[in-house]
Write a structure and sequence with these properties.
The chain is of the alpha/beta class. Among the domains are: 104 residues, Flavocytochrome C3, Chain A, domain 1 (Alpha-Beta Complex); 92 residues, Fumarate reductase/succinate dehydrogenase flavoprotein-like, C-terminal domain (Methane Monooxygenase Hydroxylase, Chain G, domain 1, Up-down Bundle). It is built from 13 helices and 22 strands. A five-stranded parallel β-sheet has the order 9-3-2-13-20, sandwiched between helices. A four-stranded mixed β-sheet has the order 1-12-11-10. Bound molecules: flavin-adenine dinucleotide (FAD) and succinic acid.
């Protein structure tokens, strides 16, 4: 049993920001699945949206967020996050984050920050570190963590399940007491107890066959919270990024929306600019619209991909502004200064998640959720580009402050039992685990993708029910492995996505259903909320 004041699951921007805030107040454990930098954050390209220029305003950023969110955002949450953004950005810079700058000097002689543009934004407002913003954020935050006493990081540790008073059979309010965690290298399950547990486990892109997300993104936080009895909402709103590199050897490589922000245009394989007829913002329309237009073009023409063309820009500009995209594409034989980039949409971001208020509070006492794992109401039915890093920064900071004023649990931790696991091992079964992984990801891609129908959703639901039963009844006889834990989680999250999609009798934002092609005003302000009865 390991005992801490704060247990943080995840070492992306949300988990690290929270840790740095609370470390002066108590002992902090950060539990993370792989090495400490491996996270969605580490791969973020475009940047962080925040109002920092005189030409911009909070009102415009709020308006753009609400418009992208297709009527489902919580306006008070949007305002709080937008308005607190600049202060959090200033702190990040103070910690050592290096954003790209322009040649221009401001009144005090310092260089001005370079502002990028992305889909759905009416102004240039994206702070970035060339096209590797996330890598620079992780570097800066991890460096700050290493200078801060009181924080211990447990790498290669996979959280399995939350420990709650209700699961232990206690009556009264349901309270989180910590988590069971699988230590991959030690091959054992460790009990972590803490009065405050934070889910900062990120998103669930790996539920889909094609995704921009790295392997860690298996929706573990949402699945754990659901099993513990927390409310989960809006899981149907899976954001497909319009432009993932299409190449047989490239796994999950994103071509940032910032490329379109700098003038890149989407074209069919025969060179037609198809977005002109779709939206006034053309290739820079909100993501749901662009992804659907690409999907429709590909279906119409039978092509495997479309193209993103930025060759009209000077080569020097492209190489300096997008060094990572340029070099990566070159490794695959594509010189983006001379030829268009083949691209396809891929699952990118989970707009729904564990229901929280703007301070990260969930409906389980002692449990907070921040970052992509949470559903605060900022994104509504479709996230505005580069608003997620902003949300993670602001909400992790607020959640940390919130914990300073709450009454900590006095639960006697000796009452927490050790983890019980099955003993069977059978190498033959590993092939079944791999098969089920593939089956879930493929059926989600084929039946629960960019364009949905009720029939396909129902087919997915019945197949997922069988898979979940197999996983539950059969696999838990076996010893714990990371693959098995993740399989259970992607099955749970896939089922939640399908269930939420079936609950919503309309098309709105990212949930496009051919059986209900229009939005339904009765659902304009309704979240699709699911909760397990324990
Ligand atoms: P993450 O950064 O994903 O961190 C999750 C952490 O939890 C990881 O450390 C992981 O190992 C750990 N974890 C997960 N499950 C477990 C478990 N069971 N046990 C222990 N640890 C666990 N957003 C923007 O705003 N701007 C961008 O430019 C941008 N670009 C993007 C580009 C790409 C390619 C991708 C994939 C996403 C991008 N996003 C962008 C989205 C953004 O990066 C994420 O939403 C954000 O980084 C999420 O941060 P987080 O801290 O919530 O989660
Ligand atoms: C990108 O760079 O296109 C990703 C931005 C985001 O997901 O917000």
């Amino acid at each position: 049993m390991k005992q801490f004041d704060y247990l943080i699951l995840g070492s992306g921007i949300a988990g690290l920001t929270f840790a740095l805030q609370v470390a002066p107040r108590g002992r902090v454990a950060i539990v993370t699945k792989k090495d400490r930098a491996e996270s969605n954050t580490n791969y973020a390209q475009g940047g962080i949206a925040a109002v920092t220029s005189k030409e911009d305003s909070f009102e415009l950023h709020v308006r753009d967020t609400l418009e992208a969110g297709a009527g489902l955002c919580k306006e008070s949450v949007v305002r709080t996050i937008v308005e607190e953004g600049p202060a959090r950005i200033a702190e990040l810079i103070e910690l050592g984050m290096r954003f790209s700058e322009t040649e221009q000097r401001s009144e005090d002689g310092s260089r001005e920050l370079d502002l990028g543009r992305e889909g759905g934004h009416s102004k240039r407002r994206i702070l970035h570190a060339k096209d590797v913003t996330g890598r620079e954020i992780e570097r800066a935050l991890l460096a700050a963590v290493s200078r801060t006493p009181n924080i211990e990081i447990f790498e290669n540790h996979v959280a399995i399940d939350l420990i709650t008073s209700q699961k232990l059979g206690y009556v009264g309010e349901n309270r989180c007491l910590g988590a069971y965690v699988f230590d991959k290298k030690g091959n054992r399950v460790v009990t972590f107890s803490a009065p405050i547990t934070v889910l900062a486990t990120g998103g669930c892109g790996k539920v889909y066959l094609y995704t921009t997300n790295p392997d860690i993104a298996t929706g573990d936080g949402v699945a754990m919270a659901y099993r513990a009895g927390a409310s989960i909402a809006n899981m149907e709103f899976v954001q497909f990024h319009p432009t993932c590199l299409y190449h047989p050897k490239a796994k999950s490589f994103l071509i940032s929306e910032a490329v379109r922000g700098e003038g890149g245009t989407l074209k069919t394989l025969d060179g037609k600019e198809f977005m002109d007829a779709v939206h006034p913002m053309k290739s820079l329309a909100p993501r749901d619209i662009v992804a659907r237009a690409i999907d429709s073009e590909m279906k119409k023409t039978g092509a495997d991909c479309v193209q993103l063309d930025i060759t009209h820009k000077p080569a020097k500009f492209i190489i300096e502004r997008f060094p990572n995209i340029y070099q990566t594409c070159l490794r695959y034989g594509i010189d983006i200064t001379k030829e268009p980039i083949p691209v396809v949409p891929a699952a990118h971001y989970q707009c729904g998640g564990v229901v929280t208020n703007v301070d990260g509070g969930t409906d389980i006492a002692g449990l907070f959720a921040v970052g992509e794992a949470a559903c605060t109401g900022l994104h509504g039915a479709n996230r505005l580009a580069s608003n997620s890093l902003l949300e993670a920064l602001v909400c992790a900071h607020r959640a940390a402050e919130k914990t300073f004023n709450i009454q900590h649990s006095t639960f006697n931790i000796q009452q927490i039992p050790v983890w019980q696991s099955g003993n069977a091992t059978n190498a033959d079964e590993l092939v079944v685990v791999a098969h089920n992984w593939d089956e879930i990801r493929r059926l989600m891609w084929d039946y629960v993708g960019i364009v949905r129908t009720n029939k396909r959703l129902q087919r997915a639901q019945s197949r997922l029910a069988n898979l979940q039963q197999e996983i539950q009844e059969y696999y838990w006889n076996f010893i714990v492995t990371a693959d098995l834990l993740e399989l259970r989680n992607i099955a749970t999250v896939a089922e939640l996505i399908v269930r939420c999609a079936l609950m919503r009798p309309e098309s709105r934002g990212l949930n496009y259903n051919l059986d209900f092609p229009d939005s339904n005003p009765d659902w304009a302000q309704r979240d699709s909320v699911v909760r397990k009865t324990i």
